[in-house]
Each structure stands twice: as C-alpha cells, then as structure tokens.
Design brief:
The chain is mainly α and 402 residues long. The chain has helices at 4-16, 19-34, 38-54, 56-65, 71-85, 92-120, 126-155, 164-189, 209-241, 248-272, 274-294, 298-312, 315-325, 330-343, 345-359, 361-380; strands at 195-200, 392-397.
Length: 402
C-alpha cells in the first residue's frame, strides 16, 4: 500500500496544473478584450511557459539546498490567484504580470512536491509512486478546459476569478500539513534514519551520470515535441486533410489516454526498468502515429488512444530516472525533467509551425511521426536500470557511512 501523502501530493499536482488547461480557453476572450495581436498572444504563452516550466530547475536547486515545503501551499495559491487576476485586468502589461505570477506558482510546487513523493515512496515502488503524483498533473491539464467553461458560463470573463477557489482551498490544506511535511524533509536531510541510495550501473562504466542526464533531458524534449505538436496541430490537420469537422474529441481521447498511460508506466518501470519503459514507449509511438494520421474510421480514435497512452506513460519514468541519476539533488533532477524538458515542447511547436508555413502542415506532421526514431536512439544510449539484470544496484547507507 502506498503512503497516503502521495495521493494528497497528486491532488495538489492536479490543482496547480489546472492553469495549463484554463489559459488557452480564455485567451480568445482576453484577445478581444485587450485587442491583442497574435504576437502578443504568443508572448503571453511564452511568459507562462518560462515562468511555469523553464525556471523549475532554479526552484529545484533551492529545494535541494534548503528545506522549503512552504513552496507547495504558496505555489497552489499563486497558480490560482494569477489566473483569477486575468478576469479583471485592464491592460496587456497586467496580463503578463498575472500570467507570470501563476506560472511561478506552478514552478514552485513541482520540485518540492516530486521530492516529497520520492522521499515517502516505499522501496521498489518509486515508479508507481511517481506515476500517481504525475497523473494528478495530467488530469489537471485535462480538467482545466472544463473548469474554465464552467466558470465562464456565469458571467463571462469576469467570473474566471472563481478559479482561485481550488488553489486557495488546497493551499489551506497544505498549510495544515506543513508540520508533517517539514518533519519528513528534516528526517531525510539530517540522515536520522537509514536512507536508500539508488545507483545506476552502466554497461559502459566510463559513462558519466551527467551525460546520461543530458541524454534523458533530450529524450524528454523529443517526447514533448511529439506530444505538444500533436495537441496543437490535430485541430488544424484533421479538418483540412482528413475531413473531420470536429477533431476536439481526438484531443480529449489523446489527453485522457495520457493520464491512463501515466498510471501504467510507473509500475512497468518498477518491474522491468525505466529504460525499457522509455524504449517501449517510442516503439509504440513510432508504430502508431503514422496510422493515426492517415487511417480513417474508428481506427483514428483507437490510435489516438494508443499514441497518447504510450507517450505520456514515460512521464513518471523520466522523473524517477532523473532522480536516480542525481540521488543527492532530487529537486534539481525533478526540475530539469519536468520543467526544462517539458517546457521545450512550446519551442518544438514553434519550429514545426514554421516548417508547416513553408512546406505545408502534412510535412510537419510527417516529421512528428518520425521523431520517435530519435527518441528511441536516445533511450538506447541510457544506462540499463532493469532490476532483473542487476542494472540497478541498491545499497543501504547508514548515518556513519553518509
């Protein structure tokens, strides 16, 4: 049985990531209200991506150096407060400030939340624990649009201020739990009890863990480019080139499948190894994306589910793998993988969009369908961490040894 705190941390992850689904829904309304250009809309998206994802490694470093469980309630509050401000702001500059505050809240929660999840997970269950934590964020991303539509149904953009409620309630709950979270962090940082150190033994023993972490981040970047590219371009590609007039359901299937895949991926990694999970994910994606883009009928929905589940099944796996590579810098590893790696998805969409403008959208989609080959190569060069092949060597380090 998993530690109950993991489910609480996952619920917080769900709430803090609601904004990633809410902001795209309210942007057309904000564009009309403030008379924004497409460039300004892009800057808003970039501001949120930078503050919520790209700066996460900074919070990760701070999380490793200092005990900062207060970042979680603060992050939960700021993520909702910033979005709530978008319903009442009257200028483009204030919109950027509101989005920046919300993004900082998101960035602050993730490293500390994932570090606590790691610390309270049981031996041999790190992947399962992280999958529970990660699925919260995926569900938040998927629920966000529905929550936005619910609040907008009352009085339009002004009623979006209601999105502060989930974050405020969650912040209060986490403040109540602060003493317990602080005790967990103190016990591990002071080494008052035996801790588990996971050490990856590479077939090539000369390979540096830092180089392996770099390959892992590149893997996450490729995965993010595939995932973000499909999400953003499905609504354009299928109506124009496949004759599907309402492709939104494909995006929903894709996202829901991702949440299910996250639950499956963690236990798979615990049993068969993280690298095997990364390899299998890219194999399935390579096989599935091309039929998804070109087949018709019910097969489109089936392949949308398969590709969505396979891609995001590795979300928790990559976080745990990064923590194994940097066992003494768990917060930094989490920030690099979840923030910097995932945040580069927007960069991939920009590049693919430029290619689509030059050569047509089908060319960009074909590039996406072959990107899993690059992901597969990156997965194969990572160290083998399979528990059945002595890929992982676990040793207990006592207080004296540490």
């Amino acid at each position: 049985m998993l530690n109950p705190y993991i489910y609480i941390l996952s619920a917080g992850h769900l709430i803090v990531d609601l904004g990633q689904g809410i902001l795209p829904i309210i942007m057309p309304l904000l564009t009309d209200k403030l008379n924004l250009s497409f460039l300004q809309v892009g800057v808003v998206a970039l501001t949120f991506t930078f503050s919520s994802a790209i700066i996460q490694p900074v919070f990760g470093v701070l999380s490793d150096r200092f005990s900062m469980p207060w970042l979680m309630p603060l992050g939960l509050f700021l993520s909702g407060f910033g979005l709530a401000l978008t319903g009442i702001i009257s200028s483009y500059q204030l919109l950027l400030l509101a989005v920046l505050l919300s993004g900082i809240g998101v960035a602050g929660y993730h490293p500390e939340g994932s570090k606590l999840t790691h610390l309270v997970s049981k031996e041999g269950k790190a992947g399962t624990s992280m999958s529970i934590f990660s699925v919260g964020g995926n569900l938040g991303f998927g629920i966000g649009p529905m929550l936005a539509m619910f609040f907008l149904s009352f009085s339009g953009l002004k009623s979006i201020t209601g999105v502060i409620i989930p974050g405020l309630v969650a912040a209060i709950v986490f403040l109540f739990l602060m003493p317990k979270f602080s005790r967990i962090l103190k016990e591990n940082s002071s080494k008052e009890k035996t801790k588990e150190v996971t050490e990856i033994i590479s077939d090539d023993k000369k390979q540096s863990k830092k180089i392996s972490l770099l390959f892992l981040i590149f893997y996450v970047v490729v995965r993010s480019w595939i995932h973000a590219g499909l999400i953003y371009f499905i609504p354009f590609y299928f109506p124009t080139f496949r004759g599907i007039t309402e492709p939104e359901y494909l995006v929903s299937i894709f996202l829901i499948a991702g949440a299910i895949g996250t639950i499956i991926g963690g236990p798979f990694a615990d049993r068969f190894g993280g690298r095997n999970g990364l390899v299998l994910s890219m194999i399935i994606s390579l096989i599935g994306i091309f039929p998804f883009l070109y087949l018709g009928g019910k097969a489109i929905s089936i392949f949308a589910f398969i590709v969505g589940a396979s891609l995001i099944s590795t979300f928790s796996i990559t976080v745990v793998y990064g923590q194994k590579l940097l066992p003494n810098n768990i917060g930094l590893a989490s920030g690099l993988v979840m923030g910097l790696g995932v945040g580069t998805g927007s960069v991939g969409v920009t590049l693919l969009g430029y290619i689509a403008d030059l050569f047509g959208l089908p060319v960009a989609m074909n590039i996406i369908s072959f990107l899993p080959i690059l992901g597969l190569i990156l997965a194969f060069v990572l160290p083998n961490d399979s528990p059945k092949r002595s890929g992982v060597k676990i040793k207990k380090v006592s207080e004296e040894e540490a």
